[in-house]
């Protein structure tokens, strides 16, 4: 392993996992279960387990998919509420890591800045910084369980004259612990899951909460209690029940997305009927709840037990649809002339997409331009040896995709060992003519703006992104490993 005079040695590992969130913890479990002789470590830049669930602390923070599929299959979510708050999820992750002694493999406060691959040594050298000390680690294989957005910087939102506002401007990604919004007027700019979560959470204490959206989104109420046990719990052995419940929720989610994509007009009518039934008479369906796009062109927003619509019925929560003309000292003026008084403005305008945690990646001394490279089967990157980038789904729980990636990683490592290969690298044949397609199948504003930070995907296998959980898991366990992959012998060969 390479070293320098100003760096200390972190050591050699068979596998280094970047990130101690859901992706990293799950990868660690699969690795230590399927390859128990492998020596691994998790490098986490923050002080705690949790990733997203340690970062976001805004009021009402919760999952936007059910915990029966968002949770780990090897430590099922045991509570009956499918949608859970952020603190409960963070504790669940800590419990899961502790239960299988994964937490003993985590090095906190280790921020990774550079990952450099040497084809000569067949090794990765990782440069980290911990409490001001530079440390170098080396590994045969690296797993990037870093999520999909920038933890340090949110998406820049262009809000006219925002500097004129005399009150507080808050971004949910960096919510102040001491923010007191009691009896204050709050305007939330945005219409995604964060805004839909914030409105009902802030309404009880604030004097008035307004969600200001440029265009509406689909908001669908779901009961926040599982009824699977009452229907099938008495029919199956207790040990089978968690697996069957998870499978039932996976199938349910898949069928709902399939229905929405296959029959968009019917899905629109279904959701419109649900919304109209819950709206107070003072708030019209059109224009506030009639999106211009089809369901799942952008991610749906789920509200547990209709909490969003219950907040609207209090008379303290409102929705406005329009374009901002300017921000003034005490509020926001829309192009229509309507003024929204505000003491606090919350900019819930989206995340800044990022691939690989923003880490600088080098292959044999050459910097890698991620946006120029194709994704390989949704888990590896063109011309990057012995590295996996964990990606979830845009229309299902993230953990489902993370688990298919973890199974693939273990299978690939076993394959390398069995055939005495030292490395595998995805390579696009020089004769290939690939047709580009978005790596994420959403057209949300933050996805379109962040596409330049993501790898490319193609319509042709194996240079495709995520498909469905069932397809991806079948491929991870049984699919061809030689299509598009080049294998290297030992470093000494």
From TrEMBL:
The lineage of its organism: Eukaryota, Fungi, Dikarya, Ascomycota, Pezizomycotina. This is Uncharacterized protein. Its cofactor is FAD. One of its GO terms (molecular function) is monooxygenase activity. Keywords: Monooxygenase, Oxidoreductase. InterPro entries: FAD-binding_MO, FAD/NAD-bd_sf. Pfam families: Pyr_redox_3. Gene3D superfamilies: FAD/NAD(P)-binding domain (3.50.50.60). It comes from Rhinocladiella mackenziei CBS 650.93.
